[in-house]
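User: My collaborator sent over this chain with a note saying "see what the structure looks like." That's all I know about it. Can you take a look?
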Amino acid sequence: MYKSLLFILLATGIIYLSSCRKKEVLITKAEEIKSSDYLPLKEGNYWIYKQFERDTNGVVTSLNITDSVYVVGESLINGRICIVVCNPDRYAIYADTMSFYRFDNEKLLDGLSQVIMSVTDFQSVLQQKTFISGPDTLASMTLRMADKDAIISVKAGTFSTINARTTWKQYKNPCINRTLFPDDDILYALNVGIVYQKMSTSCYSNKIRYRELVRYHVN
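Assistant: Without extra context I'll predict from the sequence alone. Here is the result:
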């Protein structure tokens, strides 16, 4: 009986140690995830998007606008090396525009060193701005991460995402009976990049404008 009890105790100990080791591996993997995993910016990577509008009844209309986004290379911005991405104007009004990014471990920054995405911080305010015109405060914006691991289906497939959400608050409304600033959503998928982007509307329309990923290539 003593031998049987000793065997059970040893077996239990081995199982316990084994499970602890498994947990340690999972924690290590989670800590290794960086912002660059959610926006792979190697030269040669590209993303193709289609633009749509959705009205208040949920009816979706294609705008027949295609955005081709691709990595150009690197550039020195304010003394720091940034990755240059050709990112066409989302309203297709102007010529192609350039976006500048750099990575700081779990955070993604723009060319002005402003945090625009984090893969770990879903509590803090990443950005906060107030927009003033003369004596009037027009609006304010707050950027936070939201909707961790939310599933979304777009033309390119179904993805688990994190959401860099900009929430707007209006003080002065230049539009009549319209909300100028709804929430802006930018959804990032692991090892893919941006798969969905909801954009601010304007005084000219109450429709929600967005673009979604159609196809992509990442190295």
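A starting point for your reply to your collaborator: The mean pLDDT is 81.
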